[in-house]
Fold these 4 entries.
Entry 1:
Amino acid sequence: MKTRITPSQNQFFSKLSFGKISNFWNIIFWIFILLLGSSIKLNAQTKASSKPSIAVINIDCKGVALDMKMMTSLVALELERIDRFEVIDKYDVLSHMKANEIDVNTPYGKTELIRVGTLLKVDKVLSGSVEKFGDKIIVVLRIIDIASATIEKADVMEYLDQEEDIQTMIKISINNILGIPNEPNLVEMLSNFNPPISNTQTKINLNGPRIGTYVTFGEASERLRAPKDSGGFDMFLFSAVIGYQHEIQFISSGDFQGLFEFIFTASGFEAGMFIPSFSTMIGSRFNRLGVEFGIGPSFRLVKVASGAYINNHWYYESQIPLDATNYSMVDRLDSKGDLTVSTGLIVAVGYTFHSGYLNFPINAYWSPRKDGHVVGVLFGFNSAKTKKKIRTSEK
């Protein structure tokens, strides 16, 4: 017997089939979402677990304000910021060390660090020391690989004695040991470079260019600034000077140096002139303070004319009236005069700023003269170099 399906029954079965299909695809969609989320979470966990684990153990401290516990925490903090390792929490480290009766306040060598790393079940251990030595702070860091029981990397840096920048020093050292570039200017400002050795068997020459300016006072200043038609030089109040300093060391005893200094300069360029000068001084330098003193004669080529002032009017020697009386012959700076060598005394003091092996000397000098004093300042730069040893005996 054939069953007939009425139109209303056919509509009911159609809705039933479509509802089942719709529910089926909803179930498939949510299963896909769950699998995708699980996959993302698993990948994140895998990526996190792919980073090697490391424990920072007992950073030894000597002569600095921070103790071992605080320094160890500081190193762990800077290491964690780099995000290359899974840094074990300091409380977990302390807990494991106490549980295994390991002193948390004692610096350890390689063998003990490997034992501690094995107990902690980490891949690597970082340890080292921070020690103040004289006028520098020495930071030593080393990473030990537990599996191979070897020192994987080590770094030693000497910094200036500036404890307020100790965190920056630790950051630089950690970057060094991990091969991460540091900012060159930052390293240069904090690094302590060993200066060249100075003793009785070595010579140190600090030679280099000099630039600066000077001002002349008194009658000489008036003559230099006077117009050329009246015998002046039509110069400015200040004059630029460039030159070169050469020095010879004749005494080296500890922090003290005795020097012969020779300075060649030229000036007057801004007024279209060339005024050469040569000075030689005997000086002393105190290396640690960076202070030096010098005194000696100076020589320069100038134009001088002979004449007399009669009734407040200048007459060259050849122009003095025959009936003139009560006058005295004098020599003065004069652009219409003859070229001659003028001598004088020069007294100088200086201070040297250091940046690594570079020196930046600043010298102020005073040259007293009858016709007017000269006061100036010179700036320079040079690189300290250790010369070959002097033979003290012949074999």
Entry 2:
Amino acid sequence: MTLIAILTGTLAAGIGSVWLAALLSFGVLARYTNHMLSLAAGALLATAFMHLLPEAFESQAGAQELFATLLVGLVFFFLLDKAELYHHGHEHHDPQGGDDAGHPHHHHHGHDHGQPVRSGSWAVLTGDSVHAFGDGILIASAFVADMRLGVITALAVLAHEVPHHMGDLVVLRHTSGNRSMALIKVSLAGAVTALGGLVGYALVDMLHDWLPYFLVVASSSFVYVALADLIPQLQKRLTARETLAQIAWLGVGMALVMGVSGLAHSSH
């Protein structure tokens, strides 16, 4: 049952996020692109601080060791990001002029897509596949700990992958000129999440005593993405109305996690 849930959650997060990103990028909801950053940040922070970390601290592991793991995890992801080995996004400069507010989408995947990209699309897909594999392991860790945690972790991954994949689709469409092919390629990269889930299931099952530390590492990943990648993109000079909308969508992301958690807990 747990393995089926892991496969369902990883496929929903890995491929579902791509399709939702395509809807936002290519469909009638494109004007909500900026709000997805706020929603994703809220979902990630709520998942880390309200669910993953409390679950880890309810274990027999010592608080000092878990806090040390959290600290090391944050520094580790920072160093990998600096070394351009751990990629949570890409740096895009949309040839059509960026988002609706006139701002380019900023991520950092170790290469600048502001220049014409030719073979760069393969680097994008490779980075996506590696990232998706890691997401699968994190989702599997949460499902093994608790079904409710697995559901909200999968949703949190889906939420933060949407703006990530929106940038991917922009790059691949720019290089190939084919919207459908771009969607297929990014979907295949997202499907690697399920492979990571299988490996994570086997790994966590063998190392069950290390599960609290896996959960803390997952938390450090989510916190790092939210604070180092997503929220800095929201720190712009905006009107009062735009700022209120930004805060509202941040709250929506948190409420979404809390609501799904409540539903999953009652059904569980």
Entry 3:
Amino acid sequence: MSEHASPAASIAAHSRRALDMPLEGTAQLVVTAVLGTAHLVGAFEPWSGETEDGIPAFRRGTGGATVTLHPGDVYLGLSLREPSALVACDAPRLLNRYVRPLLRALSTFGTKASYFGRDWVSAGKRPVAAVAFGYDEVSRRSLVEAFVGVDAPFADRPWHSFAGADAASLVELHRAPCEPEDVLRAVAAAYEKDYALGCVKAVHGVAELLSPEASYLASVEEAMGPVGVRRLDGRLHVAGIFMSSRDAVRRLDASLTTLRRDAPPELVAGVVDAAFAGSEAALFGVRSLHSFRDAIVAAARAR
């Protein structure tokens, strides 16, 4: 499997730089099996450092919750020049539009796979693959990722969005041998058929190990998990388990540098609205912008 596999650190490095790498053509497809075990932490999520058996952690480029990769898991990375590069799509619908070949591929392993607008793919009513996106408003570059648990579930603990379900591996659901190479071929073939893309089956690069980071000063539970504010380098920064254009988060972070401790909620609400204004912000996993407002107000007063 070595020629069709990549170390988890290389997958993280690819994910982090995907929105900024030169792109030949309208899209690039990466489907590779995983070498090693690692946590891939969401782009905006604080890393607590809580882990078992010394599993390393790396930051990825897409939002959402921490994914745990195991040997033989399958990674999909679809880099796009713009959301509509291959199908009619805008930024908020990246997952809905580009998850469809993945569903067809995973359904060939014994249990129908479905997507219900969350941060994971369901098979047998259980989460079997994580999905996430990254987006840049200025360049319109987009990244859609999937992390398929082949021999072991992709999450080492329950996610808020699971709503009580337990993540499963393809092997568990199929109840029969399920080789990573077979899953890799099925996923690659589905995307190649739909979009006439060639497939890169190994990526290279080195990612920086994550150390424990500052936790939330204040947070509010949302659809995918907490959204909140933490302090880094003496400044307030938005953090949490959600997906968004990176530009919107940067705008909000910049506004927080001048926010008064006693800023009234209505002023903070205006700042949040301005950061996420327009369809290009592509916010996903947050039901109400009031959650950001409430967390920011509480964090400012806790400084």
Entry 4:
Amino acid sequence: MTANSIQSGARYDRNFDTRLFGYVNTEFDTDALQGLNLRSLFGSGLGYHAVKNDRTVLDFLGGLNYTRESYAAVAPSPAFTRNFAAITLGQELSQKLGKTTELTQKLYFYPGLSDGDSGEYRAAFNLGTVTKINKRFGWQNAFGDIYVSNPPLGKKRNDLTLTAGLNFSFTH
């Protein structure tokens, strides 16, 4: 089977002072290898800027989220949907490496809160670089790993991705 995975999301941050901020976020994922039609996550919480300067930003985040997962029927698993509340624990790093390259790294852990989700969780790790070619375009490389503690029957727990491509910036 060919890897067919799409990940998207948005987050709004509101600084309370130089270190503390609040956030609301949403994420949407599909993953053919896992039989995942759609994972929708809606969350909010607090974050802390441990380091924030012109070259480096290191944030720690914590909050709550609501997640809905819809899985396709992929033998031997039947189609099913699950809804649950979870904790969001995260860490994000952005580091400028010279004038043209930026390294980004994210690690998130989502332990379930529902009684039926005892010990079930999801973790996501992403590491990437963007090197500017000019003001609008850059070359992007990324590695990602999504770990699901309770995948559909017959599916792997890890989904590793490696991508490379052209990056377009809307800002100068």
